[in-house]
Amino acid sequence: MVSKNTICLWFDGAALDAARFYAETFPDSAVGAVHRAPGDYPAGKEGDVLTVEFTVIGIPCLGLNGGSGIKHSEAFSFQVATDDQAETDRLWNAIVGNGGQENACGWCRDKWGLSWQITPRVLTAAFVDPDRVAAKRAFDAMMTMHKIDIAAIEAAWRG
Q1: Which residue of 36, 48, 100, 131 pairs with 96 in a disulfide if CB–CB is 3.0 to 4.6 A?
Q2: What is this structure's pTM?
Q3: Domain of life here (predicted)?
């Protein structure tokens, strides 16, 4: 069954490589059908990979090899909730270590330009704490980080 809503992600010829990386890195992720162009198009030739169906953590996606004209931005990102520091480290290091780039506050960008928020659940819990002073302490600690350090967030949250 085809999903009624699929996220379409634009790539410059690397949709299959990206889909394979996501499937190897994230749980509940897989590469599905690979569709080849039936004719020449501005970004490729007949027979080139045109689209790739894949899922990322259960979210249906379509990778489109549309060429170099459109770039990813932080206006779209995948936010991945992590349960512990080991999971946070594994996902962060997989993205950054595979040609990606660190950004602030738990954000990073993969080598294809797609943004990811690797967000420990404890960070989200701290932000919604009714004790707004404690929430601000956790928020202020996060503002100094690239990859989130759960122990530091918990210490700040507790005060």
Answers
A1: 100
A2: 0.94
A3: Bacteria
